[in-house]
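We treat protein structure as text, and this decision shapes the records that our systems exchange. We quote a single record here, exactly as it is kept in our systems:
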Amino acid sequence: MRKPEDQGFAPSLIDIENTLLAFPSAVVGDTTAITQDLRSRECRLRRAKSNDLLGHVRETLSGLSYQYIKKVRQAKTGQEHLRAYAGIKILTTEVSFYQQVYNRNSRAMAICDPSLRTRYPRLHRSDCTISTAIADVNAWGQSQVRLPWLWAAQDGWEGDSQSPQNSMLDNDRLLECE
């Protein structure tokens, strides 16, 4: 991938892509009614964006799992520069992008409404890992295996009283049906 500068394009501050935007969450100390209304609107938009991003992360991680199972495991060689890993590289980049955008959005939401800090926690790289190992459900130690919090979050994380990782242990929705 070549940089725009290498292609003869010079970045300009008058281009719309380089315009800095002042959001209500960036305004410090102003508590007028108009600012509060704008902050609540921004917060509502950011919550919707965060929910969309969590959905994109889940979909992309599912696609990664599929790529590992159907492409990499069935490849004749395990070299990472071959065709079997092409989809893996693209999807890994997508997960990283969605994670970065979600974390920025989450920080801005915490400024707009501090009560949402626990509802939309930071998305760590360890939360975005996948395991394609097929495990025996009755094997020793398998009862303690839990999915990361983002798989349980539908409209944000509901574990307000506890940290997301600890309250995941109480989430019956992700446990195997009997």
The helical segments are 33-72, 86-112, 164-167. The longest helix spans residues 33-72.
